[in-house]
Amino acid sequence: MKITVMTADEQILTLEVDPNESVENLKALLEIESRVPLQQQQLLYNGKEMRNNEKLSGLGVADGDLVMMVSNTSSAPPASSQEVLLNRDGSAVNPAAFQQQIRNNADAMAQLFQSDPELAQVILGNDLNKLQTVLRARHNERSEARRQQEEEMALLYADPFDVEAQRKIEAAIRQKGIDENWAAAIEHNPEAFARVVMLYVDMEVNGVPIKAFVDSGAQSTIISKTCAERLGLLRLLDERYKGIAHGVGQSEILGRIHVAPIKIGNNFYPCSFVVLDSPNMEFLFGLDMLRKHQCSIDLKDNVLRVGGGEVAVPFLQEKDIPRNFLDEEKQLKEASSSVAQGSSGSAAALSNAPTPSGGQSSGPAHGGPTQGPEFEAKVVKLIELGFSREAVVQALKFFDGNEEAAAGYLFGG
């Protein structure tokens, strides 16, 4: 284990020692490093003198702990050394003197900034109460680490037929594997702990600039009612396509806007939208339009390629995305209730069908049965328009056999 020794002349020494080493052997090592004779050394740990015949582990000295070395020319440590001693709870006896002495030692401050930046910042500050709090917290952390180490040692000598002890050993081994995996990720894959910013691009919808959230995991392109109103598209809302969008939750579908121009780069493309009562998600460019316009998400070059590559627009950096868009918790909650969470890649079931009760005027009238000769005739008729049989059957069933609604859906998709 490594311990830090602060000498009377404010020298900082970091030593690699064995936990079962005696204090006398530690003093001998310090004599080589500090040139202070062994007989003149007095070592203090948590304000208590360390006797020569005592072992470091017996005194509770653990990895990363601080030991004070003062001159032993008198029976008691000098007043200046007393001022930097620590109480049993880890706080400083004289916090102001402790703070000043560490501040005046450039090496100690450099080490603190590397090993414990928080404590270094507190020492440079003016809040002595906070300094005492941090010192006590560090003492508690070391005490907890020692307690866990003692528990691990006790488990090693536990009865191999003790089921509870074996369960604890298994849990300790599993936790060790988790900790090692975490440490490896910190070293080799630190990006995994950073926040992932969602993909946004600049577009123009009906001539109005907008920042579009690109989500290949969403089944349909959606727009909120407020956004559609701002873009001047709400007048085109077809309320016959009311329904409920199902995902992790659900959201009300207000209708559909069948076609409107969107500008990506310098090119214009036709786009259809599902209008949701979704105040947090303004505009989501979903899989339907990504497929229709042969888009590809190029994460290597960080661009969205449209039209098979004829247009490439860069994804926005975090600083260019409005702050309310970066509230990922709200966005993902809204996205999950309307389409699907893009991070999971799962598609939600968008129910654009009319309200189930046939007497309501909010949707088109039922078109008849979804099987039999009449249904097959509708299938053949729609296939002649260029759609696959599978898509036609699905659309007709989706709209309860309503041929016109199914055709509108197929042309709109």
Report on this structure.
The chain is of the alpha+beta class and 413 residues long. It folds into four domains: 2-157, Roll (Ubiquitin-like (UB roll)); 160-194; 200-351, Cathepsin D, subunit A, domain 1 (Beta Barrel), CATH 2.40.70; 373-412, Orthogonal Bundle (Helicase, Ruva Protein, domain 3). Helix content is 38%, strand content 21%. Strand 1 and strand 2 form a beta hairpin. Helix 5 (106-115) crosses helix 6 (117-124) and helix 6 (117-124) packs antiparallel against helix 7. The chain is elongated.
What is the fold's blueprint, element by element?
Elements: E1 2-6, E2 12-16, H1 23-34, E3 41-45, E4 48-49, H2 56-59, E5 66-71, H3 79-82, H4 95-103, H5 106-115, H6 117-124, H7 128-156, H8 163-188, E6 200-205, E7 208-214, E8 222-224, H9 225-230, E9 243-246, E10 250-264, E11 267-276, E12 283-285, H10 287-292, E13 296-298, E14 303-306, E15 311-314, H11 328-338, E16 349-351, H12 373-383, H13 389-398, H14 403-412
Parallel strand pairs: 1-5, 7-12, 8-11
Antiparallel strand pairs: 1-2, 3-4, 3-5, 6-7, 6-10, 8-12, 9-10, 9-16, 10-11, 13-14, 14-15
Helix pairs in contact: 5-6, 6-7, 12-13, 13-14
